[in-house]
């Protein structure tokens, strides 16, 4: 909320500077986001009085001025046509920064005559656009005074009012809070009640419980003139556009008193007024030039012709005041905050009035609000006031709180003397009677319990005396990560060390793309963008979009991973933690020492295996099965029986094509929540068994049907003797002319580690035969002759 | 015998001296010491000498034989060394050629900073808690003293889930306070980091960002402890003792009193400000305790919440929040951390950020 210093001073008598006021406001929770001080940059300019004007001897259009600075007479060359003897204008002395040019003024000679300063026009000071002549200050202030004082441009505070402080959406409330700090004293702007000279021809009745009270008044014979300057200036400073006196007065009370009002053109009303619930489908053309369709439950101010105003939110065009308005009906009412908030939200109608009502205005302000507004109307627009028309009753806002004065110490650790606490509360308008506190009407929407009272006391008292206490650790520093979170940390570092870069992408994505990734249909009702409308069922699509993003910027080889949630339903238990990565383009780039190679399925498999290893997952089995977004022939899963820990593979070319990605992409997904916890909690390792005997190796070449899985061959070999056979590596895969069609050859190097005694040739022969036989039995492979 | 040696010796020594490769040298060795070599022949002659001459001649011949053998060996070593040097000279490569690429990836600054924060809070005795991203109205709003139509709901523009009006994307991590208090009796001392969501997208806001929530509930913890914990945390996190903390009264429905904590000192000065708004905090509102079945007359405590992304930006000089989530390789290579940069209290929390050189 914006308010000018002048306006504030109508409610607060103070000698404090704008900066002091701003600091105080911030310290009591009314944060000043900005002090706008247009004359701040003019403080170095002074008033110069022109004592003599004569023509420049060398130039027709220039004058030679004698200017009095209050201390000395200066000779100044000036081109302005409007200078006259006795004129007080803005004088810049050498060294002063001229805002328009952002340069400091220097002494100089103009057409051979020295000029000892400069008289300024509006545009040169950046306070206006006029350059037809120098500024005529028309002031009584003596020469030498700072121009900032003569121009009297107002300081404006931009205050961030928190939603609990409905009372501070008015200058009055801000001033009242400030006065409690002792920075100034509060001035009431209440007026003497105006005695009406006639009975209002319009009566009011309330049938909607969301309006406990309505105070109206008929004023006849007004003239809707232009508002006086002081009012216009205040409104402009607050960011409002002055319209006409009747409208401006309601705005002035809205911001000044935090008292929203409405003025109807009484001649446009039909019959009497009823505050009632809207009828379904009832329409109103409102003052924001929109047409609203109302529904039951919304409170309206209606006449006999229909709804004329959306209560507390916005007035209607048919009954609004114009330049020709002569008779008015002034409304000052109270509406329940929740009802206003609901109506405003449903209609999506924003107004200063709604903002105040929904945060809760002073429930005791209906009558005085009407009186102040009437006073202003009579003073500015003339006319004759009726008696007040009062419907309903002031809502019951009275609240008492039993307060234990020790609460302040208990909750804050601060020792504040009770007398001081009492004094603070009284200055804030509370009535203190022993331990019983009465909340003032303007705080009744907000202060309701002991903690609120503690806040009030501490807010005004300040926190200078707040001690700093250490919260002793009640246990030894220890790992606080759950096993799953440890895995999250480990897998991040493992994947990064493999060359993948960690990214964080949105938890949401395009539902059209999600459809290709086993969409779970968890849509966002109000997405930030239409292509971010569904909670992601997989991390892969966002990573693919990231690939595209990078490739569009000239980076073809992309290596990324993310560890984050996937969503399978809106239930808390169906959010699962996944680590996923992708590699696009070349795995090894063109380089003198290596051959270029594009990424393939085994890069993704290696990443997945390394990731699982970093998370201490048990040995997995590889299955040739993966979701539809992978290449059906180049993908697989890593499982423990039916439990899938990971998928890996080349991303399906059709998906890449749809996304406009031209390089191959491989990826993997690891379901961290599926990894079982280690069974043993023991930290000690199994003892290491070392043999002093040399290991030996034997090579085997097996020929088999080409669909036989290599893993079966390896597992057969290992199972021959789990102790002695320590390794089996496939060092060649051959498919080609030298073999019958449909066959492949795998060459395996088997490492045999004798444990207790050296193996004889015969022992090795037996082991080799066992290997050959078991491989044949399990896979049908023959040893190559 | 001496005469024969005198004739043989200069000739042999000269030949050895002149030999310029190992083959030539070996030929000389065979000619002298081989089966039919000159010295071997002399050795054989010894047997024909009379007994009285035999001893002396034998000694002389042995000395001679040893001298030649040593000279040969010395020459052999010299030639071998020369051969090795010649071979090495021929094997020279250009060591200025670049090495085989070995790319190491980077850790995202938000993850890094989250680990830093957890390291500090673990040391201070906090436990870790979690909650779901898709939250229900009760945990995100109602239990936190934000009833429907409360204007505070508008402070946090909320994403709603389609077809399930009770479900939203959590707007803050404060819901974890409720989930924790519903399931655990005081004393409670937790932090809860995570993703949060608001309908907001401009230079300083993204629809998704990260928060860490802190909650302490027991019978005595008060505002002064909150100040102490935050000061300690900030000093450890920013690794400076020059941390000035200011509590500015503010409003959050779930705390009373509520404060914005601003930090001053060298940290603020480094970005040209007197104070930087850092986090929101306060004493847990009695209604919140009641909503979780905790008696506010017996228990009390504080809560705080801060933006992890913002802390990362501040600590590591990252200019634009939006880049955190656009997965740009150039950005992550520049602002990311090496996998070996593991934050610990002992080795320092802030390690060299990624490509900082």
Outline of this structure?
By secondary structure, chain A is α+β, with helices and mostly antiparallel strands. Chain A is 26% helix and 27% strand. Chain A contains 20 helices and 43 strands.
Please specify the SSE layout and strand pairing.
The complex is a heterodimer of chains A (785) and B (357).
Chain A: E1 2-4, H1 5-11, E2 12-13, H2 18-27, E3 31-36, E4 46-55, E5 63-68, E6 73-78, E7 88-92, E8 97-98, E9 103-104, E10 108-110, E11 113-115, E12 118-119, H3 122-125, H4 147-151, E13 156-160, H5 171-180, E14 185-186, E15 204-206, E16 213-220, H6 229-237, H7 245-256, E17 262-265, E18 273-277, E19 283-285, E20 291-293, E21 299-303, E22 306-310, E23 314-315, E24 328-334, H8 337-347, H9 352-359, H10 366-381, E25 384-392, E26 400-402, H11 407-412, H12 418-427, E27 431-433, E28 436-438, H13 450-461, H14 483-497, E29 501-502, E30 508-509, H15 511-514, E31 534-535, H16 540-551, E32 558-567, E33 575-584, E34 586-588, E35 597-598, H17 601-614, E36 621-623, E37 630-640, E38 643-651, H18 653-659, E39 665-671, E40 696-705, H19 710-720, E41 725-734, E42 743-752, H20 761-779, E43 782-783
Parallel strand pairs in A: 15-18, 29-32
Antiparallel strand pairs in A: 1-13, 2-14, 3-13, 4-5, 4-7, 5-6, 7-12, 8-9, 10-11, 16-24, 16-25, 17-24, 18-21, 19-20, 21-22, 22-23, 26-28, 27-28, 30-31, 32-33, 33-39, 34-35, 36-37, 37-38, 38-39, 40-42, 40-43, 41-42
Chain B: H1 2-18, H2 22-33, H3 38-46, H4 51-90, H5 109-123, E1 127-128, E2 134-136, H6 137-140, E3 167-169, H7 175-183, E4 188-197, E5 208-218, H8 223-238, E6 244-252, E7 255-264, H9 266-270, E8 276-284, H10 286-291, E9 300-307, H11 308-316, H12 329-335
Parallel strand pairs in B: 1-4
Antiparallel strand pairs in B: 2-3, 4-5, 5-9, 6-7, 7-8, 8-9
């Amino acid at each position: 909320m914006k308010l000018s210093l002048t306006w504030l001073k109508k409610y607060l008598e103070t000698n404090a500077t704008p900066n002091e006021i701003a600091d105080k406001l911030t310290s009591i929770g009314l944060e000043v986001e900005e002090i706008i001080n247009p004359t701040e940059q003019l403080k170095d300019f002074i008033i110069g009085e022109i004592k003599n004007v004569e023509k420049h001897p060398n130039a027709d259009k220039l004058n030679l001025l004698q200017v009095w600075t209050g201390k000395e007479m200066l000779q100044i060359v000036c081109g302005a046509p409007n200078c006259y003897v006795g004129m007080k204008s803005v004088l810049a002395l050498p060294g002063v920064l001229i805002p328009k040019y952002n340069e400091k003024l220097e002494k100089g000679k103009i057409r051979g005559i020295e000029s000892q300063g400069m008289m300024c026009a509006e545009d040169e000071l950046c306070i206006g656009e006029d350059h037809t002549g120098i500024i005529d200050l028309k002031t009584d202030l003596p020469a030498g005074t700072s121009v900032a004082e003569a121009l009297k441009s107002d300081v404006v505070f931009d205050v961030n009012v928190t939603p609990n402080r409905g009372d501070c959406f008015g200058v009055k409330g801000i001033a009242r809070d400030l006065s409690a700090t002792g920075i100034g004293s509060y001035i009431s702007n209440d007026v003497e009640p105006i005695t009406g000279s006639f009975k209002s021809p319009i009566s009011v009745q309330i049938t909607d419980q969301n309006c406990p009270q309505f105070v109206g008044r008929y004023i006849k014979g007004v003239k809707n003139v232009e508002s006086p300057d002081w009012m216009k200036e205040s409104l402009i400073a607050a960011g409002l556009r002055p319209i006409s006196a009747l409208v401006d007065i309601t705005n002035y009370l809205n911001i000044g008193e935090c008292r929203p009002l409405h003025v109807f053109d009484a001649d446009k009303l039909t019959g009497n007024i009823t505050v009632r619930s809207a009828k379904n489908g009832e329409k109103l053309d409102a003052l924001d030039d929109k047409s609203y369709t109302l529904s039951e439950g919304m409170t309206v101010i209606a006449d006999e012709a229909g709804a004329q105003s959306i209560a507390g939110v916005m007035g209607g065009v048919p009954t609004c005041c114009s330049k020709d308005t002569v008779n008015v009906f002034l409304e000052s009412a109270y509406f329940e905050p929740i009802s206003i908030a609901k109506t405003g939200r449903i209609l999506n109608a924003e107004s200063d009035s709604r903002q105040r009502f929904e945060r809760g205005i002073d429930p005791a302000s209906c009558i005085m609000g009407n009186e102040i507004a009437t006073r202003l109307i009579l003073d500015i627009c003339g006319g004759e006031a009726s008696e007040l028309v009062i419907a309903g009753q002031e809502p019951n806002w009275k609240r008492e709180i039993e307060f234990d004065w020790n609460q302040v110490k208990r909750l804050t650790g601060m020792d504040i003397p009770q007398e001081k606490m009492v004094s603070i509360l009284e200055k804030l308008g509370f009535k203190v009677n022993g331990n019983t506190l009465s909340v003032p009407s303007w705080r009744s929407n907000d202060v309701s319990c002991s903690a609120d009272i503690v806040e009030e006391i501490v807010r005004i008292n300040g926190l200078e005396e707040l001690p700093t206490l250490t919260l002793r650790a009640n246990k030894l520093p220890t790992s606080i990560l759950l096993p799953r979170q440890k895995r999250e940390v480990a897998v991040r570092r493992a994947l990064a060390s493999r060359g993948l870069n960690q990214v964080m992408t949105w938890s949401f994505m395009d539902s059209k793309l999600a459809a290709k990734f086993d969409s779970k249909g968890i849509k966002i009702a109000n997405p930030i963008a239409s292509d971010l409308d569904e909670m992601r069922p997989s991390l892969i699509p966002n990573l693919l979009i990231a690939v595209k993003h990078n490739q569009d910027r000239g980076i073809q080889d992309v290596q990324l991973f993310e560890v984050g949630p996937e969503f399978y339903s809106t239930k808390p238990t169906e959010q699962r933690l996944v680590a996923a990565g992708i590699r696009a383009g070349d795995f090894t780039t063109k380089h003198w020492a290596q051959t270029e190679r594009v990424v393939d399925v085994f890069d993704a498999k290696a990443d997945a295996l390394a990731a699982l290893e970093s998370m201490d997952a048990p040995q997995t089995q590889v299955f040739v099965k993966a979701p539809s977004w992978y290449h059906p022939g180049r993908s697989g899963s890593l499982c423990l029986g039916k439990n899938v820990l990971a998928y890996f593979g080349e991303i399906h070319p059709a998906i890449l094509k749809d996304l406009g990605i031209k390089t191959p992409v491989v990826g993997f997904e690891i379901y961290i929540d599926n990894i079982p916890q280690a069974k043993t909690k023991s930290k000690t390792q199994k003892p290491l068994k070392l043999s002093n005997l040399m290991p030996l190796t034997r090579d085997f070449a097996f020929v088999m049907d080409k669909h036989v899985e290599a893993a079966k061959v390896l597992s057969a070999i290992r199972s021959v003797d789990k102790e002695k056979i320590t390794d089996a590596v496939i060092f060649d895969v051959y498919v080609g002319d030298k073999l019958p069609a449909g066959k492949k050859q795998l060459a395996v190097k088997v490492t045999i580690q004798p444990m207790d005694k050296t193996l004889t040739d015969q022992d090795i022969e037996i082991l080799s035969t066992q290997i050959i036989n078991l491989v044949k039995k399990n896979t049908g492979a023959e040893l190559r002759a | 015998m001496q005469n024969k040696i005198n004739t043989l010796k200069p000739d042999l020594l000269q030949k050895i001296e002149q030999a310029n490769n190992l083959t030539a040298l070996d030929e000389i060795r065979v000619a002298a010491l081989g089966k039919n070599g000159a010295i071997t022949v002399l050795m054989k002659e010894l047997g024909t000498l009379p007994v009285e001459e035999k001893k002396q001649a034998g000694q002389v011949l042995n000395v001679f034989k040893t001298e030649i053998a040593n000279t040969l060996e010395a020459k052999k070593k010299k030639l071998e060394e020369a051969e090795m040097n010649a071979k090495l000279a021929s094997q020279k490569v250009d060591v200025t050629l670049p090495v085989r690429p070995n790319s190491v990836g980077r850790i995202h600054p938000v993850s890094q900073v989250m680990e830093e924060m957890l390291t500090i809070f673990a040391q201070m005795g906090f436990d870790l808690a979690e909650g779901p991203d898709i939250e229900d109205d009760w945990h995100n709003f109602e239990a936190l003293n934000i009833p429907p139509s409360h204007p505070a709901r508008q402070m946090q523009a909320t994403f709603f889930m389609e077809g399930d009006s009770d479900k939203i994307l959590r707007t803050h991590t404060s819901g974890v306070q409720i989930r924790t208090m519903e399931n655990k009796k005081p004393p409670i001392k937790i932090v809860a980091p995570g993703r949060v969501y608001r309908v907001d997208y401009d230079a300083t806001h993204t629809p998704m960002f990260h928060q860490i929530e802190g909650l302490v509930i027991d019978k005595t913890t008060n505002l002064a402890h909150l100040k102490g914990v935050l000061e300690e945390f900030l000093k450890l996190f920013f690794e400076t003792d020059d941390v000035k903390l200011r509590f500015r009264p503010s409003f959050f429905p779930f705390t009373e009193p509520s404060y914005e904590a601003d930090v001053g000192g060298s940290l603020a000065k480094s970005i040209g400000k007197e104070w930087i708004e850092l986090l929101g905090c306060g004493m847990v509102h009695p209604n919140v305790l009641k909503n979780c079945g905790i008696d506010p007359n017996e228990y009390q405590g504080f809560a705080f919440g801060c933006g992890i992304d913002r802390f990362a930006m501040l600590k590591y000089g990252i200019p634009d929040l939006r880049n955190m989530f656009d997965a740009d390789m150039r950005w992550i290579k520049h602002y990311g951390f090496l996998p070996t940069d593991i934050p610990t209290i002992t080795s320092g929390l802030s390690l060299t950020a990624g490509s900082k050189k």
